[in-house]
UniProtKB/TrEMBL annotation:
Span of domain TonB-dependent receptor-like beta-barrel: 301-695
Lineage, opening ranks: Bacteria, Pseudomonadati, Bacteroidota, Flavobacteriia, Flavobacteriales
An example molecular function term from Gene Ontology annotations: siderophore uptake transmembrane transporter activity
Stored CDD domains: ligand_gated_channel (cd01347)
Cellular compartment(s): Cell outer membrane
Protein name per the record: TonB-dependent receptor
Signal peptide extent: 1-18
């Protein structure tokens, strides 16, 4: 706490001193860049049409590449720290299909699954090298995005960098703690004299260890070229490619945490006191997973006339993985803390998505200030899942003491030798194909200036071809559903202060389920999530203060609930219901000359209606984030900037259930934490020097999705950029 207080005092004092000593020169353009990058939240994607944040009835959080550059962040996983109400639960494991990072939004599990409004899951660590802006659309968004990629809590959309009309770019090298080094480049060039054909490539290579094993040599390579051809002032072609190749060991995951098996210990702080070494990796060498992601995106934009535009999009995404997936269990015997070491790897595991989407945008003004904006489109999405998991049929690799052991024996050679013997090997395979056909329309009607009425509707048909999950056959099915939405925005003060409300809907098809001990099956009804939300938005002082406060209420019904087993098949019913309510406050502001603030506070109350308890996958009730930065924009120190940021999360119960054997409630808690980060940079026309120190108070903190995952201790990185 003393470190936090001292840091805050130093920060405030430095800001005050800087303000007093700064001279007033021409800085308008720099200020406009800062405001546009750090404060402005307008989007062309959230409603599949250009819409200002102040006139949008849905809540959108966003963070630009400029903020990531200032904070020296180079992955999407790290960028999440700037999004209000978002809690990261897992970093990427790189397994094909499900290996991307997991997050919580409004009490529901979500993943980063969208790019430029299209389906493009990345199942590895996502390099931010080609990121222009990260957008997070809050609440169920099935009307415009469908049932297969959007969580009931929201969705994550990556807006990528685009080619532009002049030659330019930069090269950056970064290095620092835990044997981290990185090289990246961003090069843009017109390919023709008339500047109709434009090319841009962003690429990066990163090598790093971990705070537990600095010689880990995890490697990450990203290559993301893009091409734009402006055939005329009406016709444009865009092609983008993303390749993410990783060879890495996933973060340390502790499963099976329960006070029953831990002599009553029910939280991570007490487990550390009992002997769990936060800094120990518990593995040997070479337990890597090799993973590849390839995304290809094509787009044709055509301006039919001044009022009608067409956008034709084709997207193909493919993920592959092969390698180890170590994880751990914890237990106690004779008051000694023990660790069970396991592995669930992948072998030639694949999953792919192919999408074709056509949108038409209409924008008409008529009468006295009336306006109508419409997007109408159709979408085809094909999903092919060929996930291949392997594990030892003997269970754990071994059991070792959590203190002072030699952990090097759990390594790639030893585990590989066991897998090479078919007698030791078990498989969990998935074979399934799903074709999804959708049509949708969304309309924003402005009957008078400042009043916007939003109505939308989607029809979606899911055509499952059936297949196999593990040893169980899955029957084909076809299921359709409607997804409506409605919203109302009234700008009490035009372009400055608005009140809004929305109804949002989403759904999910779960296929067939077994409903009795005789093994009979039935097609389940779609899950349904309905959100009602209301609040206020501000855009004050010429766009310098952008704030949103909202209250939401989400009810999700028709969850499949397991009541028993028929052989190895779960017996289920459709009585599951979850209620999520909460409040969010988010502020992006350029407060005084050179000083900007990104911050927010979120409270969520999620309840499983059957048990009355908070689901173990709902995350923390309270979340807070901030990043305060100051940049000298004129005077002798022009280009110098520095900042401090932090994240708070309250206790997170990753086990929360009634135990009938003990006639008591079993809980296990990841303790609350407050992590602080700091950064500084010096930016000139040709060079940029950056420095950051993450977790500078050296906080021990854990995240998890029914697991406990220790996070990085204090770490410093520095970078040098040459611009051309």
């Amino acid at each position: 706490m003393k470190k936090i207080i001292v840091s805050a005092v130093v920060l405030v004092s430095t800001f005050a001193y800087a303000q007093e000593n700064d001279t007033v020169n021409n800085s308008k353009n720099i200020e406009e860049v800062i405001i546009d990058a750090l404060v402005k939240k307008d989007s062309d994607y959230s409603n599949k049409m250009p819409l200002k944040a102040i006139e949008d009835p849905q809540v959108l959080s966003s963070i630009s590449y400029k903020a990531l550059e200032n904070q020296l962040l180079y992955t999407i996983d790290d960028a999440y720290r700037n999004i209000t109400g978002l809690q990261k639960m897992w970093n990427a494991t790189s397994r094909a299909g499900d290996g991307g990072s997991f997050i919580i939004l409004r009490g529901f599990v979500s993943t980063g699954s969208m790019r430029n409004g299209l389906v493009a899951p990345v199942t590895t660590t996502v390099d931010a090298i080609n990121l222009e802006k990260l957008e997070v659309l809050k609440g169920p968004s099935g009307t415009l995005y469908g049932s297969n990629v959007a969580s009931y809590g929201g969705l994550v959309n990556r807006v990528t960098k685009k080619p532009y009309g002049t030659f330019g770019g930069n090269v950056t090298v970064t290095g620092g703690g835990y044997n981290t080094y990185r090289a990246q480049a961003d090069v843009n060039a017109p390919l023709t004299a008339d500047k109709k054909l434009l090319f841009r490539v962003n690429t990066a290579y990163t090598n790093s260890g971990t705070f537990q094993k600095s010689d880990m040599k995890n490697s990450y390579f990203a290559f993301t070229p893009s091409l734009t051809y402006n055939a005329s002032d009406r016709l444009q072609f865009n092609v983008e490619y993303e390749m993410f190749n990783n060879r890495a060991v996933g973060e340390q995951l502790f499963f099976y945490l329960s006070p029953v098996g831990l002599n009553g210990i029910d939280n991570m702080k007490d487990l550390e006191k009992a002997g769990l070494d936060y800094k120990q990796s518990f593995i040997g060498d070479d337990l890597y997973t090799t993973a590849r992601v390839n995304n290809v995106f094509g787009q044709i934009n055509y301006k039919i006339n001044d009022n009608i535009k067409s956008s034709t999009n084709i997207n193909n995404s493919h993920s592959f993985s092969n390698g180890f997936g170590p994880y751990f269990g914890l237990g106690m015997m004779d008051n000694q803390l023990l660790i069970q070491r396991y592995d669930q790897g992948t072998k030639d595991s694949k999953k792919s998505w192919f999408q074709v989407q056509q949108n038409f945008n209409f924008d008409y003004t008529f009468g006295n200030g009336m306006r109508n904006r419409t997007v109408a489109g159709f979408d085809f999405l094909q999903t092919k899942d060929r996930s291949r998991f392997i594990y030892l049929n003997t269970g754990a690799f071994d059991t070792v003491s959590a203190n002072g052991g030699d952990y090097s024996g759990f390594n790639g050679s030893a585990l590989g030798a066991l897998y090479n013997n078919p007698a030791n090997l078990s498989n969990y395979d998935i074979d399934s194909d799903l074709n999804t056909y959708s049509g949708y329309v969304s309309n924003v009607f402005t009957p008078v200036s400042g009043l916007n009425v939003v109505l939308g509707l989607r029809y979606e048909s899911n055509d499952s071809k059936g297949g196999k999950v593990w040893i169980n056959d899955t029957d084909p099915y076809n299921q359709s559903a409607w997804s409506p939405k409605a919203g109302l925005v009234y700008e009490i003060v035009k372009d400055k202060f608005s009140v809004f409300g929305n109804y949002q809907n989403s759904f999910k098809s779960n296929g067939y389920y077994t409903f009795n001990a005789a093994g009979e099956t039935a097609l389940s009804d779609p899950e349904r999530a309905n959100q009602f939300e209301g609040g206020f938005k501000t855009n004050l002082i010429n766009g310098k203060i952008n704030a949103t406060v909202s209250y939401y209420d989400i009810t999700a019904k028709n969850y499949l609930v397991t009541t028993g087993y028929f052989g190895n098949i779960a017996i289920q019913n459709q009585t599951g219901e979850i209620r999520s309510k909460g409040v969010e406050l988010e502020v992006n502001a350029y407060l005084v000359k050179g000083f900007s603030l990104i911050g927010g506070l979120a409270y969520n109350d999620t309840v499983d209606q059957a048990t009355g308890m908070r689901p173990a996958t709902s995350g923390s009730k309270w979340l807070a984030n901030f990043n305060a930065s100051y940049q000298f924009i004129d005077g002798n120190l022009k280009g110098l900037g520095f900042g401090v940021g932090g994240n708070y999360a309250s206790d997170n119960k990753i086990l929360n259930q009634f135990n009938p054997t003990r006639n008591a409630q079993d809980t296990f808690t990841l303790n609350s934490f407050f992590v602080l980060n700091a950064n500084a940079y010096y930016d000139t026309k040709k060079f940029r020097i950056g420095l950051k120190v993450d977790n500078f108070t050296n906080e021990h903190y854990w995240i998890g999705y029914s697991t406990a995952n220790p996070q990085t201790l204090i770490n410093a990185l520095g970078s040098i950029t040459y611009k051309f």
